[in-house]
Specification:
Layout (H helix, E strand, L loop, with lengths): L2 E7 L2 E6 L5 E6 L10 E7 L8 H16 L6 H18 L1 H12 L3 H6 L4 H8 L30
Antiparallel strand pairs: 1-2, 2-3, 3-4
Length: about 160
């Protein structure tokens, strides 16, 4: 099968494969001489016959590849699960305080709050006038000026 090698580490390789149907795949036991592999661990189709864009397919395949090749990698699904459990625990301990904390300390965007399943009316009420809208570029937030675009550590020393 025709493929393009993107990255290889140990027994795993991340490849772009296919001719008529394009997909990103993580394979095990890639043999470059025979252009074959022992097995396919996972694959993600993209294009007009798939529900995924090329970027989404690459993200999912890369996430899986890193899970297999980097012991410190935490998958997107696991981080999402952790965030949701923490959010639920905060709310169980005190709903009003939890929303206030998420507004003041976490500074969730509307999209992030919706993703976590927060009541948007309650979240916006907790924010009131005290929450300045976060910047839409580069994850810069007013409370973290060191992340401001064009700044480096020496600007704050």
């Amino acid at each position: 099968m025709k493929y393009t090698l993107i990255e290889e580490k140990g027994q795993y390789a991340l490849i772009l494969r296919g001719e008529s149907m394009m997909q990103y795949a993580v394979v095990s036991g890639l043999d470059r001489e025979t252009e074959s592999w022992d097995w396919t661990c996972c694959y993600y189709d993209f294009g007009k016959f798939s529900g995924l864009t090329k970027a989404e397919a690459l993200f999912k395949a890369l996430d899986y590849y890193l899970m297999r090749t980097d012991e410190k990698h935490i998958t997107w699904a696991r981080m999402s699960e952790i965030a949701t459990v923490l959010k639920d625990g905060l709310i169980e301990d005190g709903e009003e305080e939890a929303y206030r904390y998420m507004v003041d300390a976490v500074e969730l965007t509307d999209a992030e709050a919706e993703y976590l399943g927060l009541d948007m009316t309650q979240y916006r009420d907790a924010a009131g006038d005290s929450m300045a809208p976060p910047s839409t570029s580069g994850n810069y937030r007013p409370t973290n000026p060191r992340d401001a675009p064009g700044k480096n550590a020496s600007d704050f020393v």
